[in-house]
Amino acid sequence: MEHFGKVEAFLGEGGFGIVAKCRDTMTNRAVAIKVNKSDPDILQQAKLEIFILEQLRRLDPDAANIVKWNGFFHDGEWVCLKFELLDQCLWDYIGDRKNQGLPISEVRPILGHLTNALSHLGSVGIVRADLKPGNIMVVNRYESPVKVRLIDFGLACPASAVMPGDRVGTVGYSAPEVMLGLPYNEASDMWSLGLVAVELGTGVPLYPGNEDYDVLKFIIETQGQPPDHVLDSGVYIMMFRRGPENGQRLFSSPCIGMSAEISQNPVVFQHPSHLKCKRSEKINCSFQNSVEFSQQVFVRTLHNNLHLNIHLISRTHIHILSLKKTLRKNKE
């Protein structure tokens, strides 16, 4: 590969190909190389990712909390993207703590970085479309507070290019409007951010499941069903209806088809306003009642992000930004 004399480690593998740690022989720096398979569909996806990354060149990666991209090159039929080398993804970071969840004092700056990143993406009209802990990298796990960056823009797209029925994202992190085939925009990223926030605070996903049907069932159990006029606009609504006896209801009963493993998840079927963060009693803060106050603001923010009304302004970056301002004011 161009200027890369040695592959030092394989960092990950997916449907697209592999990510490898390589040594740049010109700078002697370790970098991350995303090697896309030569499959025509994968190569087309790589071209789309390069297009998005070119748009993001207008942003300062450090200021925007996004990965630094250093261009691409061809190695035979493979398309290789060059990125800065980061430490580990949030899934691994949470796993290192045995999935017990992070204290609020650690969750808060991470959410601040992610909100900042999504705000910057919105400023250039980009929908992230696949926000999840696996696509969020910790720069250095030994720093305090840790810094995070968004990576993997393979499914990102211009907001102006989104079409109803476009199915992107990962099961368990997609917004309801995406699953139902409704029009969506940057607000769908804020839903995903709310789910990432829950996972940071509790150590487990809020809505587990291997299929959209299971996930949407959990969402309706905790937050109710979207209005009928919204459901009727969904491209995929008939995939979720269960027989004529259901009328306008999306599901026939609350737990049909749910596996024992999923039903035993301690976080399932809790409304966001009922969530509590683990290990909060261990946080030491300098101002009175800061732990309780932080928890209340954190939960209120989750409630706003995980709102079913896709047209409501509450599911935007405004509420998490207000969280930061409120905490700062309370501390002063």
Can you tell me the CATH superfamily of the largest domain?
Transferase(Phosphotransferase) domain 1
Radius of gyration: 21 Å
Domain module count: 2
The computed structural class is alpha+beta
For the record, the CATH architecture of the largest domain stands as: Orthogonal Bundle
N-C termini distance: 53 Å
Fill in the CATH topology of the largest domain: Transferase(Phosphotransferase), domain 1
The total of beta strands comes to 10
List the secondary-structure elements in sequence, H or E.
EEEHHEEEHHEEEEHHHHHHH
Task: Summarize the amount of helix as a percent range.
Answer: 25-40%
Q: Which geometry do the CA atoms define? A: globular
Regarding CATH, which class of the largest domain? Mainly Alpha
Spatial strand arrangement across the major sheet: 1-2-3-5-4
* Number of H- or I-type helical stretches: 11
Major sheet summary line: 5 strands, antiparallel
Residue share in β-strands: 15-25%
Low-pLDDT parts are 243-248, 252-269, 276-290, 316-324
Mean pLDDT: 79
Brief synopsis:
By secondary structure, the protein is α+β, with helices and mostly antiparallel strands.
